[in-house]
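User: DUF362 domain-containing protein. Structure?
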Amino acid sequence: MTPCMTLPFASYVDSVPEILDQSGARALVNACDAILLKPNLVTGDAFPITTHPDCVRAVITWLKSETNADIVIGEGCGDMSKETDDIYAALGYTSLSRETGVPLVDLNTAPLTRRENPSCEVFPEIYLPEIAFTHTLISLPVLKAHSLADITGSLKNMIGLAPPAHYSGQFGTWKKALFHNRMHQSIMDLNTYITPAFTLMDASVGMAEYHLGGPTCDPPVNTLIAGHDPKAVDRKAAALLGVDWRAIPHLR
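Assistant: Predicted structure:
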């Protein structure tokens, strides 16, 4: 598998299977029994703020042609006033699940496991969904600048795994607001415990300045990024946004 590659975007139907074929994803999925697809559905706003269901649909179609592994879609939204099931319904994931037969999991309420790592500065102890460790995790983020993390990509997408029961409050009203304190170190700590086995980032449009609104990239970036190294994917994403990854602490 290549650490990271890019492909010009034509359509989800054509470009997603092409980049999955070329980036070596086949070897990974053929070696696993269960797969967790983790889109970025932080809020109920549609693409390009969140992962387009057609992108996930194309991934599922490719996976089903390559493997008999069990496939689930999992997310834990960060929205202060909505639950993950609301987000799934609003963004077309509930109908996607019915169409494909791939179940949806609310990572905000899924059974948890407790892990420890004394070397982690912010989270020497952490609670995360069991499913993140029993399934091969494929991250499906979108290209976005971020107000606290500089960019939000594959590594930051893992914050969706954090249960609000343990990580809300103190630093904002979002369900995972505890991560807003020392954001870069929090991302690094989290990915010490769980990091994607593979990433497909939808950089077909891109959010140029802010992760929850503002201008889109002009012109659209028209690119997909994929690979087994999430840091390499995010460094490439930073470059597409015109940001030097060396200036982003969690990517250095």
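The mean pLDDT is 96. The first helix runs from residue 12 to 22.
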